[in-house]
Amino acid sequence: MKKYLLLTVLFIAACSSAPTANQSSEDSMGMEGVSDAPTPVHEEEAPKGAKHDEPEVKPAPVASSQYSSLNSAIKSQNDEGIYRAATDILAQNGSDARALNALAMYHFKKGRFDLSRYLLSKAIGANANMSELYSNLGVVQLAQNERREAIKSFKKALSVNGLDPVASANVGSIYVQEKDYKKGLLALEVAYSKGVRDPRVLNNYAVALTATGSYDKAADLYKKVVKDDSNNREAILNYAILLVDKMEKYKDGLEVISRLKFVGGPTGSSNRINALENKAKAGLK
């Protein structure tokens, strides 16, 4: 069965909520609270020959309104707004994992993969318990053709949070491409249950369902994808394959094939489409 794999980047930071007015920025990420910046203290004269220790300056708490600005920019996919809000937060606390994550994905979208990777690594150093950091690191590694490292990052994200939707969607899609459909199905079921509805992920989910014999559920997914995007050639072709080759619903298959021929099939699929059409017509005789 012909499959089409398209991995998706989901901006997990968009799901973050701003901390409440009486909650510190680090509390909102499951870390210990950050104390207010110390007030100036008059220095006593150090004895001669004694080493002078500089007082440790702790970052001031980030205002909840700054997180609100960041969340708003992410929700509206305002790249420059994300950049401004993230850098404003980092000006106060250079180790703020949420802002580092947002800034990393801003640079990722600009094609600055090495910088994105550096920022995500710094964020992980600040808070190793945010699964989305590992998920986004895996996305960057995929973009740099480091497939095995990406899988490790996605698995790490799932070890931190077994319900991480981005990690589940991407590692599941990789398993599907490698024809490990059972593992792919388990991961993609998690992504779907957590609200992932990207048509590329749904297509991969339907491929896994088809390969494991869940034809009716796969058909329902393809119907949804095609309804939402009538020009999704990969999903339409896979739907036709399911109807004709697996379910032997030749009449329905011909209707889908007719639609596919109207929008045009994926590159290199013309022979496959013709074979499906001939099989469906023969099945109706």
Q: Quick summary of this structure?
A:
The protein is built from 13 helices and no strands.
Keywords:
62% helix, 285 residues, disordered N terminus, Serine Threonine Protein Phosphatase 5, Tetratricopeptide repeat
Textual characterization of the structure:
The chain is an all-alpha fold. The protein folds into 2 domains: 1-21 and 61-198, Alpha Horseshoe (Serine Threonine Protein Phosphatase 5, Tetratricopeptide repeat); 213-285, Serine Threonine Protein Phosphatase 5, Tetratricopeptide repeat. It is built from 13 helices and no strands. It has helices at 64-75, 79-92, 97-109, 113-126, 131-143, 147-160, 165-177, 181-193, 199-211, 215-228, 233-246, 250-263, 270-284. The protein is elongated and about 80 Å long. Mean pLDDT is 83; it is low at 1-52.
Structural class: mainly alpha
Strand content: under 5%
Radius of gyration: 25 Å
Main pleated-sheet profile:
none
Write down the overall mean pLDDT. 83
Overall number of strands: 0
Name the overall outline. Answer: elongated
Question: What is the H/E string?
Answer: HHHHHHHHHHHHH
Number of domains: 2
Helicity range? 55-70%
Q: Class of the largest domain, according to the CATH hierarchy? A: Mainly Alpha
Q: Between the first and last Cα atoms, what is the distance in angstroms? A: 24 Å
How many separate helices?
13
- Going by CATH, the architecture of the largest domain would be Alpha Horseshoe
